[in-house]
Specification:
The chain is mostly helical. It contains 11 helices and no strands. It is globular, with a radius of gyration of 25 Å. About 20% of the residues have low confidence.
Length: about 350
């Protein structure tokens, strides 16, 4: 029915086995995307007060990535089998965008694991940044005051290291997106020349190397986290260790396989951009290895690891009234270790889970 709905015409379309593989992968990605967005709504309904948590971000990125793959496969089949002449640049953008989102989600996971492994080195600066926040907060200032506006602009500069690794992830995603746009422009400008084969191949090769390195880094830091969590004897620590261990094994294996397939001379990544399609069964196997094994399986496994819903927050809990007390300067230095230790312990609790 989907083939009929797309209006596929015999003679212009891909080989039948490739069409079947594309439709199956598109269906799998659609199911994963729907599940990711469904879980995102359930998580958000239980923790609306917390804003964008780590769990919500991963579900959003995974859902958008798999939804992008679904749109890419469906529109590519429709464009190829109906003879859309303007399609190659748009096809590359639709192919590269979900790959960037997929790469960003696991790069973000790696950044959180690095934060967890180097938590002891960051605690001193976390304590210093937290002390600056409390010292600069005025009890008489209102939410819209100019003092807090100055704080919101200045404090992130002093506490840059706390979120610096996540900012590097955003920067890497922006750079890869810019490169993708340039490649798409090159495809449109160099259509009918050797640039159509050369420019996308260079982009795909570089991204494949980055994905391979990402898989190796996830394996190394996952093994390091598991080795440290073995010393903790608790049921929650054992559960988290199995989650980290599973991700550190499944992700590198899938990333390695997809990277090797992408670097082959007959890469399936650019198969949909070629005018002549051949190698029916061989290319179908490569498409399965690259898209299903390299993307769908890690995405589904990540959603399975993060399937647990957070505890609902009761709306009846209200904040206790605070009492403003004015103290002298010399007493501030006496009580400072107490509240800095409390803040430091809160930061440790928030960063205990590696998932």
């Amino acid at each position: 029915m989907m083939v009929v709905a797309l209006g596929l015409r015999k003679g212009l379309c891909f080989p039948p086995v490739v069409v079947g593989v594309d439709l199956v992968i598109a269906l799998v990605d659609c199911v994963i995307a729907l599940f990711a967005f469904y879980q995102l709504l359930r998580i958000h309904s239980r923790s609306q007060q917390l804003g964008w948590t780590r769990q919500k971000v991963f579900h959003f990125l995974t859902g958008c990535s798999n939804l992008g793959y679904f749109v890419y496969f469906v529109l590519t089949l429709a464009a190829s089998c109906n003879g859309w002449q303007f399609w190659p640049p748009y096809s590359f953008v639709l192919m590269a965008t979900p790959e960037i989102l997929f790469f960003t989600s696991f790069l973000l996971l790696l950044s959180f694991w690095i934060d967890l492994c180097h938590q002891a080195n960051d605690e001193d600066e976390d304590e210093e940044c937290s002390s600056r926040v409390i010292l600069l907060q005025s009890p008489l200032s209102k939410p819209g005051s100019s003092i807090q506006d100055v704080q919101s602009r200045c404090l992130p500069i002093h506490c840059f290291r706390v979120r610096s690794r996540q900012r590097i992830v955003v920067l890497a995603a922006c750079l890869i997106s810019a490169a993708m746009i340039l490649v798409a422009i090159g495809i449109g400008v160099g259509e009918g020349s050797t640039y159509l084969d050369l420019i996308p191949k260079i982009y795909v090769s570089l991204l494949s190397v980055l994905v391979f390195v990402l898989g190796g880094a996830l394996a190394c830091y996952g093994f390091l986290i598991c080795s440290r969590m073995r010393r903790v004897r608790s049921e929650s620590a054992s559960s988290e260790m199995w989650k980290v261990g599973g991700l550190s094994v499944v992700s590198p294996l899938c990333f390695t396989m997809s990277s090797v397939v992408a670097l082959l001379p007959d890469s399936p990544v650019l198969y949909h951009l070629q005018e002549q399609q051949n190698g029916n069964a061989y290319m179908a196997v490569l498409l399965i290895l690259y898209y299903f094994v390299g993307s769908s399986i890690p995405s589904a496994f990540l959603l399975w690891v993060m399937r647990e819903l957070p505890q609902p927050i009761s709306p009846s809990i209200r904040e206790e009234p605070t009492t403003i007390t004015f103290i002298a300067d010399h007493s501030l230095s006496v009580h400072r270790p107490q509240w800095t230790t409390a803040l430091n312990s809160q930061n440790q609790v928030s960063r205990l889970s590696p998932i």
